[in-house]
């Protein structure tokens, strides 16, 4: 397959970028130009930040270093799939409805596209393990935050990451934000060597979506606005 046309910034308006952003789980191996990666990482720092603390600390990996890290993770999962000691819980314990139902539904929709029934646990584990190969993406990002920061600063991380993903769409790129990396903070830290005061929040796969991959047909549903928003005086 020919590599996708490298689109100039900005090819989408904001509404189009929001509408087309999705979690891609199969990428082409087409390299992402370093200049684009540097540009979007810098531009995303215009995201809102309480008190202008800008608490995000970003590590971007591509090329040979990323290939090396993928091999490290392949060995890590093969020799000891048990996670590292984690520093935060991705979801609240005993997740309740409607949140539990939404989380369950997206998993079932994804595995249905892959033709993987619930009974085929080995196939599902293999698919989950692809998280730790960045779904074949040629570029990756890790987001850290100072351990002393509080919940408001964690919300700043989300605003930075969303801004970055929308900027990537402006270049015709796709991404997948991955909190699953938080279960291997020690392994990632040994590779990246961040300062001790930093804690790993998430990773992200970055690249060009594989248009032929069934998993990329997944479009997660969103709740009707009436279920999460209250409007008054309008």
Task: Please give the number of β-strands.
Answer: 4
Distance between the termini: 51 Å
Regions with little confidence, pLDDT below 50 for 5+ residues? 1-9
Helix/strand/pairing class, anyone?
alpha+beta
Order of helices and strands: HHEHHHEHEHEH
Strand order of the main beta sheet, please? 1-2-4-3
Q: How many helices does DSSP assign? A: 8
Radius of gyration: 18 Å
Helix content: 25-40%
Overall geometry comes to: globular
Estimate the mean pLDDT confidence: 92
Q: How much strand?
A: 5-15%
| Main sheet properties | 4 strands, antiparallel
Report on this model:
By secondary structure, this protein is an alpha+beta fold. Helix content is 38%, strand content 12%. The protein contains 8 helices and 4 strands. It has helices at residues 14-20, 34-43, 63-79, 99-113, 121-129, 151-170, 185-192, 225-228; strands spanning 57-62, 139-146, 174-178, 198-207. Helix 1 (14-20) crosses helix 6 and helix 2 packs across helix 6 (151-170). The longest helix has 20 residues, at 151-170. The radius of gyration is 18 Å and the shape is globular. The protein starts with 13 loop residues before the first helix and ends in a 6-residue tail after the last helix. The relative contact order is 0.24. The model is unreliable at 1-9 (pLDDT under 50).
Topology summary:
Blueprint: H1 14-20, H2 34-43, E1 57-62, H3 63-79, H4 99-113, H5 121-129, E2 139-146, H6 151-170, E3 174-178, H7 185-192, E4 198-207, H8 225-228
Antiparallel strand pairs: 1-2, 2-4, 3-4
Helix pairs in contact: 1-6, 2-6
């Amino acid at each position: 397959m020919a590599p996708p046309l490298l689109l100039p910034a900005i090819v989408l308006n904001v509404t189009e970028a929001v509408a087309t952003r999705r979690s891609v789980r199969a990428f082409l191996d087409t390299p992402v130009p370093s200049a684009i990666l540097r540009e979007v990482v810098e531009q995303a720092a215009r995201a809102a930040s309480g008190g202008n603390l800008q608490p995000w600390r970003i590590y971007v990996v591509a090329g040979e270093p990323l290939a090396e890290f993928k091999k490290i993770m392949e060995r890590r999962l093969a020799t000891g799939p048990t996670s590292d000691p984690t520093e935060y819980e991705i979801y609240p314990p005993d997740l309740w409805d409607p949140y539990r139902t939404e989380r369950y539904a997206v998993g079932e929709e994804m595995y249905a596209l892959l033709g993987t029934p619930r009974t085929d646990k080995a196939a599902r584990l293999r698919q989950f393990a692809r998280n730790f190969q960045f779904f074949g993406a040629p570029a990756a990002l890790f987001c850290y935050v100072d351990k002393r920061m509080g919940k408001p600063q964690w919300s700043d991380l989300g605003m930075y990451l969303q801004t970055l993903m929308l900027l990537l769409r402006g270049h015709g790129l796709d991404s997948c934000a991955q909190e699953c990396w938080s279960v291997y903070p020690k392994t990632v830290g040994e590779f990246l060597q961040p300062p001790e005061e930093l804690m790993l929040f998430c990773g992200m796969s970055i690249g060009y979506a594989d248009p032929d991959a069934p998993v990329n047909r997944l479009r997660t549903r969103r709740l009707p606005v009436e279920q999460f928003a209250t409007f008054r005086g309008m």
